[in-house]
User: What shape does this take?
Amino acid sequence: MKKFYTLLFTIVLAELSLAASPWTQKATFGGPGRHRSFGFSIGNRGYIGGGWIGVQFWDDFWEYDPGTNTWTQKADLPTGGIVSPCGFAIGGKGYFTLGLDYNYNYNTDLWEYNPQNNVWTAKAQWPSFGTYGTEAFVIGDRAYLGDQGSYDMYVYDQSQDQWIYTPTGYYFQWDEVALSLNGKGYMATAQTGNQLWRYDPGTNFWTQLATMPAGGITESSGFVAGGRIYVGTGQWYADGTRLREFWEFNPATNSWRGVNELPGNERDDASAFSIAGKGYIGTGTNGINMQDFWEFDPQYVTGNDESMEEKLPVSIYPNPVTEYVMIGLPPGLNDAWLEMFDIGGKKILSTRLSASATRLDRGDIAPGSYIYKITDDTGTLDSG
Assistant: This one.
């Protein structure tokens, strides 16, 4: 039986302290709390706009700068208040379409945002019936949107400012998660089964991949970080229980694992995007509309492959530590090894652990963040 233990420590000045999460809370979203807004990123900036609180439709639009950890309000949405629109970005421009406007009418207009002059410009209208809860993935200079409740897809060609009707073999549902990675599109979290499908634009062909091990969830959010797909939050489709769990999909191995859950409140209908290899998520609702905002750094991810046994507890004491740390192993684990890596993945320490407790002296280890991996003699775990 394999047993795996992945631990993450941070050495700060003279002290050794535990830092077990890839999540960092950032500046509170600049506008009022909300859910069912849209988000996208352009270059090194993220954007969130629209949404509602059940009675109030929002038309404000905000820019997030991770370099300064600040929010700046930008030009209001030209539609007025809107809920559940579909947002995406292509080639330095942002877009939104569809959704339900403040008069409870379906929006079919497409609007383009230019961050250089802070101006919205009308573009080619969505060619099918209006709807809301649609998601898009972007490959090159094209955005791919499904026509919900059908096998039809419409592709927006930015260079031609036109929509291209593209029938496919995938049945589009409401409130899915759409992402792109390495020139392919992904659709995740169908309402009843959490199937994951990959789209190849060269062949117009969909391939079903490993099913997300979450059960039936809906109204989730997702982002790409560190070459992997992350999907989380939302609610159980069967009973509406809201979640803060997250799952990671590795396209190289076609496998999922549960990873560090969002430290904030359970929620659904949050907004998410990626910037420079990190994920960001914020807003959403659990009955209370939220403003908190979080950054996800994939280099600190820990989790379990779904095929592996649940990890057993490992004790670390004292914490914080100035000179050494004691690592205690659970009963039954013998002949284990501890490996220590810097955040760039370079191994700086490898040592055998006893069955009871092992003292690890700090020695000449410099201040910084380090990953510790503990394995028995039957195998190792890739900690990400």
